[in-house]
Each structure stands twice: as structure tokens, then as C-alpha cells.
Amino acid sequence: MASTHEKVGYAPEGKPPEHTPFTAASGVESVVRMLEGRWKLVILFHLFGGKLLRFSDLERAIPAISQKMLIQQLRQMESDGIVTRLVHHQVPPKVEYGLTAWGQSLCPALDALLQWAEARPADPDAP
Amino acid sequence: MASTHEKVGYAPEGKPPEHTPFTAASGVESVVRMLEGRWKLVILFHLFGGKLLRFSDLERAIPAISQKMLIQQLRQMESDGIVTRLVHHQVPPKVEYGLTAWGQSLCPALDALLQWAEARPADPDAP
DNA sequence: CCGCATCCAACGAGATACTG
DNA sequence: CAGTATCTCGTTGGATGCGG
């Protein structure tokens, strides 16, 4: 996809000019990729406490999720470098999940999103 | 938000995490609902320029999207009060899409997300 | 207790063609 | 130009059962 010059000049004064729509869109797609799925954000939110949580802890915290989805999303986020997986070779087995530093750095951004969601006006307003 | 410190039927017993994950989870799910889909964020990003864009403008800006998806996501966001739809009864027809004030207020949060994505370290570190 | 594999249902999403 | 309708397909997600 070659770069056509868009009119979508998202170029506020404070932002670098390299924030072109296509780069931005790529970034957007990266974000979408990493946060896609019905459960990623929910899992993340339970991890934002900063403590390591066991698999069963997460299962208990999110009753609506299936094991498959839980492990799947967890693994994907681990691959993305968002969550950590700590295996204790014990009997019975014990695996704890937590956030990487980068994953923790997501917290304020998500919080902004949450606040945005809560700020929804009941009045369908105009731009 | 009033003091909704009650449990919602989750975790019948004992030891919920310290920071109210349930209230938060609800908010998270709202966000997920409103921003889900492969194209919402991309469309939003093209709308953040602040100018009204025609349907065909968006089609041109996002070549990979189909008309069906474009109109669908647009309508959903309109229902959610994120985007505006301005119909000019002319020949040929002309419909312009833009952001509501609330939709525009999403910009910084998304920007934070973008910056987070760009800040991904090559080194998968531990917390 | 943790995780994987398989089967299966339900949407999401794309292509195409048609209408106002 | 803007939007709708229909069909199909791939993916996501859920249920269950087994293995370390």
C-alpha cells in the first residue's frame, strides 16, 4: 500500500509530523490486534492490581470466560510481551500470571478509556 | 457514580481483589462493545482530523474495508453517540460523517494507546 | 491444578448485485 | 453517491474430555 496523501491531517501542533494517517492506522491496527478479543481487556484489568494471579484465580474472577479463551488470550498477550507467565514446578502445579512493565504501562491508557466511557452524555449531542 | 459496592453475584465467597474489578469490568465491557470490530478504531482515526468526511472519502481512505463494514461500523458508532451523520438531500446524494463532542474526547485516550503501542520494548522483560 | 485437543455453533466479515 | 440485501466463508468462542 503506497502512501497516498490523505487529507486526514491528524497533525496537532504538539505531535510529530510523522504521525501520518497510515502510520497511525498501522499503529491502530497493532493496538487492535493486541487488544482484540472479547476478554483481553477484562483479563488485563484484573491483572492491573499488580499482583500475580493464578490461572484459577482468573477463572474465578471472570466466571463467564472459558478455560480455552482464558489460556488463549493469556498466551497471546504473553507473546505480545504484555503479560508474564511464571511456572512453579510443584505438585500441584502452580502458574502465576502478571504484567510486564510494558503491560503495566497500559494502565493509564485503559483508565483514560474507562473514564471516557463513563463520560458518555445521555444527550446525543452535535459536534 | 453512586456507591455501588455490592457484589454482582460473582465470587460468592470471600476474597475479591482489593480494587473493585467488577465495576471496572463493566466499564471495560462497555468500551469493548463500543470499540469492537476490526475497523472502528481505524475509522475513528480518520475522523479525528475534525473535518466531516463523506462516505466515499472514508472508502477511499480505507481501501481494505467493504461498504458493508463501513456503513455498519459507522451506524453502530452513530448509535453509540460517537459519530454524527449529516445528510444533504441533494442530487447526487451527499452524506458527511464526523465526530460528536464525546467522540472527539476519545482522541487523547486513543493517542495514549498508540503511544503505548509504539513504546513496545524489544526486550520481553519481567515486571 | 494447569493446560491442551477436538468438535461444533455463532458471528463477523467479505464479495457481489441491486435500489433510491 | 449512498446504502441495502443476500450468500458464503473464515474465524472466534464455547463445551467437553483427556493428559502432565
UniProtKB/TrEMBL annotation, chains A, B:
Organism (species): Aurantimonas endophytica
Gene3D superfamilies: Winged helix-like DNA-binding domain superfamily/Winged helix DNA-binding domain
Domain spans labelled HTH hxlR-type: 20-125
Name this protein carries in UniProt: DNA-binding HxlR family transcriptional regulator
Domain of life: Bacteria
GO molecular function: DNA binding
Record-linked Pfam families: HxlR (PF01638)
Residues making up the signal peptide according to the UniProt record: none
Protein keywords: DNA-binding, Transcription, Transcription regulation
Annotated stretches, region: Disordered: 1-21
InterPro entries hit by this protein: HTH_HxlR, WH-like_DNA-bd_sf, WH_DNA-bd_sf
